């Protein structure tokens, strides 16, 4: 390979690492014009296109790499990521399976496969993927959190709580794990602990409408109208469209349907 060609390739990789993805794609394009059978360059180009949200182009790039080297795990993984971003989850699972066949210890591929199974509501398979992620990297707090989400979806709330506690042991400041822990504790009718968990979430991120809404639901479940309305108000201030819509259909607020203050909160301004 000539020095100029090597320079294009090295610059593409360097620009990618700096987050200058358009520049990276243009360098890889120059390189591939003269070296079209270089599967790594097609793969790196695909990842840069993913960062630019050009997912269809990224898939085409990964497929070029795969045609050149069918066992290139990184290209299969990238294709899976791009397919999942497009909501093509069934196809994404096939790609992740291929990636893992060729690189069975790829932690990110196991994790991304698990996330894709979550989108497909295939919770047992999601748990198996997260278990594998954790086996390979026990301190992956995101995998412990995602495992809890899958467990809760199967109504295995005690198991979900154990996973969340492990996640929070690994990353104490993970506000969304504190928030989800509050939701799980509410399901277990452990309301005081649930409120404390939402408060912990707000301690780490105050502009967190999910936690205010979670508190509102917990108080509503106990039919504490004043506290429920106060916390629902805080959620709606931060994210009016989403939480107004959610509160309209959320059964925990059924006892408030005739409450004037509740009705007023749900009106669009």
From TrEMBL:
Gene3D superfamilies: Tetratricopeptide repeat domain
Top-level taxonomic group: Bacteria
Species the sequence originates in: Drouetiella hepatica Uher 2000/2452
Name the UniProt record assigns to this protein: Tetratricopeptide repeat protein
TPR repeat copies, ranges: 5-38, 39-72, 73-106, 107-140, 175-208, 209-242
Pfam families with a match to the protein in the record: TPR_16 (PF13432)
Keyword Repeat among UniProt keywords: yes
Keywords per UniProt: Repeat, TPR repeat
């Amino acid at each position: 390979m000539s020095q100029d060609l090597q320079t294009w390739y090295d610059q593409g990789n360097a620009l990618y690492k700096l987050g200058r993805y358009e520049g990276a794609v243009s360098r890889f394009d120059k390189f591939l014009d003269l070296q079209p059978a270089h599967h790594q360059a097609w793969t790196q180009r695909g990842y840069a296109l993913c960062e630019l949200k050009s997912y269809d182009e990224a898939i085409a790039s990964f497929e070029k790499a795969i045609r050149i080297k069918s066992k290139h795990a990184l290209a299969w993984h990238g294709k899976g990521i791009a397919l999942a971003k497009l909501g093509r989850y069934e196809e994404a699972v096939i790609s992740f399976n291929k990636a893992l066949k060729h690189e069975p210890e790829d932690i990110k591929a196991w994790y991304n496969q698990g996330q894709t199974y979550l989108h497909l509501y295939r919770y047992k398979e999601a748990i198996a993927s997260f278990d594998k992620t954790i086996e390979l990297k026990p301190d992956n707090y995101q995998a412990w959190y995602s495992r809890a989400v899958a467990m809760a979806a199967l109504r295995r709330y005690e198991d979900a709580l154990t996973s969340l506690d492990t996640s929070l042991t690994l990353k104490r400041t993970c506000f969304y794990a504190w928030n989800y822990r509050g939701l799980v504790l509410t399901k277990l009718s452990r309301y005081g602990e649930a409120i404390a968990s939402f408060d912990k979430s707000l301690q780490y991120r105050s502009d967190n409408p999910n936690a205010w809404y979670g508190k509102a639901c917990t108080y509503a479940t106990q039919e504490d109208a004043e506290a429920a309305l106060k916390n629902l108000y805080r959620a709606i201030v931060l994210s009016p469209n989403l939480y107004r819509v959610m509160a309209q259909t959320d059964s925990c607020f059924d006892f408030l349907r005739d409450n004037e203050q509740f009705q007023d909160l749900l009106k669009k301004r």
